[in-house]
From TrEMBL:
Keywords: Glycosidase, Hydrolase. One of its GO terms (biological process) is carbohydrate metabolic process. Residues 609-695 form the Glycosyl hydrolase family 31 C-terminal domain. It comes from the Bacteria. The keyword Hydrolase applies. Belongs to the glycosyl hydrolase 31 family. Residues 64-234 form the Glycoside hydrolase family 31 N-terminal domain. One of its GO terms (molecular function) is hydrolase activity, hydrolyzing O-glycosyl compounds. Coiled coil: none annotated. The keyword Hydrolase applies. It holds the Pfam family Gal_mutarotas_2. This is Glycosyl hydrolase.
Amino acid sequence: MLEDDNLNQTTLNEEENDGTLESMHHVNNPVLDLPKIEKKYLETIVAHNQNDKSYYFSDGKAKVEIKIVTDEIVRVRLAPQGTFLEDFSYALAKKDHRVSIHQCKEETDHYLVHTNTISCKINKNDFLISFADRSGKLFNADLAPMHWEENPDFGGYYVYSTKVAFENEAFYGLGDKATKLNLRGKRLKNWNSDTYAFAYDQDPLYKTIPFYIGLKDGEAYGIFFDNTFKTYFDFAAEDPGKTSFWSEGGELQYYYIHGPHIIDVIRRYHTLTGTHYLPPLWAIGYHQCRWSYYPEANVRKVAEEFRKRQIPCDAIYLDIDYMEGYRCFTWNKQYFPNPKNMISDLANDGFKTVVMIDPGIKVDENYWVFREGKENKYFCRRGDDYFMEGFVWPGRCQFPDFTNPEVRQWWGTLYQGLVEDGVAGFWNDMNEPAVFGRGTFPDDVRHQYDGHRGSHRKAHNVYGMQMVRATYDGLKKLYKNKRPFTITRAAYAGTQRYSSVWTGDNLASWEHLKLGTLQLQRLSTSGMSFCGTDIGGFTGEPDGELFTRWMQFGVFSPFMRVHSAGDTRDREPWSFGEDWEKINRKFIELRYKLLPYIYTCFWEQTKYGFPILRPISMVEQHIPTNWQREEEFCFGDKILVSPVLQPGQKSKIVYLPEGTWFYYFNNEIYVGGKEHTIATPIDEMPIFIRGGSVIPEYPVMQYTGEKKIEELQLNVYFAEGVTRSYVYSDHGDTFAYEQDIYLEKCFTVSGLKESLSIKQTRDGLFTERYEEYKLQLIGLPFQVKKVKTDGIDTKVQVDEKGRYWINVAREFDNILIEG
């Protein structure tokens, strides 16, 4: 009866509306044709338009933006329903980019968007996009149109890009991956993960850097997939002719970065994401760490042993046990009754103190950090508005939302007490974020995301980055004109603007020593040059040989730190006996001798975007046999090393790039462009200096700044031809270099069979304290008969080993050495 009444009322209403009777269809769901959830692909282009440097193409529903960022960088962006998300990225540095020319040309079957360097071709009928240089040489091409699939549970889309993997194309980058350098044949995932004692090929690890380099026919390009969700990369693993990258959310947004040299791709990637901040000089010295050095007497004993044994060291670290109940920004007064006094005494003996800070804040109403965070609503919440709570070292914890700028500012102020106590550096750990028992936060945790909102699916991979950003920005204010030092375990692309990184909880094994050499090369070519490993392995027990070989590699790690777990035996340089101590001392001293060269490499990264560690595949990318080389790499462009990676190894085959090379320990000359068998006695490691180089050298110090430099030694290695070397100096710990208070010296060395000339040019306003250079002339193919400095005769000294030495004023212009 009720149904009849409703029907009659409906009929009456229809009659009143239009006076006609319509047949009625009653269904439970008024949507008669629900769309099927499936992958959808871009179709034929039906419209296009331009807005400034952006060109838009549409298939009638979806829209693609081709944006000219620079002459060599193009951004590709997909909007499946024709509406783009807000243009926001944590990865990008705030920089103005210059474009010379750009225009779009329509042809019969395609559009061509080009600059004066590259061309982006967009096919009309199938929406395939490809990139070529202006001569038409193809670098990168879609195999299938960009595609997507609706995500009914979370909203948004899974987004996909599938590209051609050309025959013999090699792939590098992607940051912290525990696998071989060439990624071809690998499928990898980006999701920052706490991976204790990770294994070879285990994935994912602690960092997300969705940037890779393709090397095709000896020429390179880069792809930066700026997407913070869980992302995947397939480098011809599923299909040898296909490379794909995709994400579980967010936009399909990537940057094509043109080469053709790998180093150019990396430099241009840095123009997008920024370079490393210039660290204080002490931060690139030798650092000693353990979980944990406590109580205070133990810390003082370790410091005392370093100075007594004359082993250089700049920093000692305090792990979580320095805190009161693992509460961040507190001191355990039982272990450290007067931390300020201890830190002052350490500083007077040349040691900087670095302490750990984790993101988990103990739920405790009597704990001032928790109270402030709670009162100001700074902690993360779940989807149904409960606080995100999880267990880490202090027990039940809540976690700040570092994607909220107000929270980041607050977090930066929390360091004030530790800074006033004299702490010089800070170590952000457990910030993947790691949570005991479940791995990380659940997906429904909400984040402010600088006003752009998002769940943890979106914010997970940037959580650690934003934590260390808050740390760095806060310290920059607290230290005023002093440069902060920070280190983080978790990272996303662009983290280099705020912090150094290390590879996490590795294992004391020869395999992990090899893995460390691969990881640091990969991090360096992925934009994070200030990187290191836990020397000796975090967990497990190295013997003296493994520890010493790792220490040798550590000299040529941009970040040099020994670190070990609390359940391992002592891991100081002297812990394995007198013979090993002697070798470890020798190599740590080598680090300190090379500090002016290493500091110059950091300057070149900061100012020019050059990677510090350079694989052979980058140094000589035009030689296909080099694309698989992994054991040799260059530190800067003047020193090549090949760490010893096998126990009991008496010799190893080392490839030297083209040119002349000098074995560091005896100055024996080797011809490049081929492999050499090099002896590897335990107190040496294959280290070579490129001929033509000028390598600055400090006297051995127990810590940076211990000694006043009376004269700077310059080691000049002969080679025929012209070679340029740079030496950088400044105050070593301030930001005065940003006002040009620095000195960048260029030495141009020109070698002939009977002469050698050295020309110096200087840029910057910094004044060095020393007045002279002491030049060592190495490898001259002639007997020196005459030396003139700026036209004036200069005295030459010959030592007992037949080496030539000259002293010259630091501001010389030209030196001519004749045979």
